[in-house]
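Folded chain entry —
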Amino acid sequence: MSKYQTLKEEAYEANMQIPAQHLALYTWGNVSAFDKAAGVFAIKPSGVPYPDLTADSMVVVDLEGKVVEGTLRPSSDTPTHLVLYKEFAVKDGADINGIIHTHSTFAVSWAQAVRSVPLFGTTHADHIQTEVPCTPYLSEEAVKNDYEKETGNLIVSHFRNLKLNPAEVNMVLVGGHGPFCWGKTADKSVYNAAVLEEVSHMALNTLLIRSDANPLPAYIVNKHYERKHGPNAYYGQK
């Protein structure tokens, strides 16, 4: 048995949640599971339909981008995952052990408009205290240079410029492209992607109902976030 078997199984189970949660059609998404101590992550193989996936088909990649286990090519988005793990999980020390990229309809719609998702309600505030950030388009030079790696670099630079903490803001839209989300586990990253899709849908409906809708007041945002994530959180069971 592979020494990465548990990691590969985690990645496999998370990838199978993409079609189950209606987050992508065909092969339009991928999840990775990260083992920080080992310095490797397991990720979906490129272009393989979800029904054909197995735990053994997951590809294990190190933080230099080298395949250390697997016979298939890893996802074409692997360099983006690699940059985010190196910068957010290793350099910043955020507890990030899973990353997902999808092309879910409503999140992509906001990305194509190159607009951040406004924080209109408590569903959004239960998860993050800010609007969902959207990066600008990648530059022509970046696209020609190393598209997927530069996508990761763009996300990181956008977070640095906005002084966002990736441990708290666990989702982003890439302008013209789509969402990336992360979490403490690969499964949690899928959960965050599903949340992003839902709040993106809600925000669109809010603007359709009232085009001049106001953001949720900060005191309500803070209350909803803190009751789930603050030091005195009381949501759920102990």
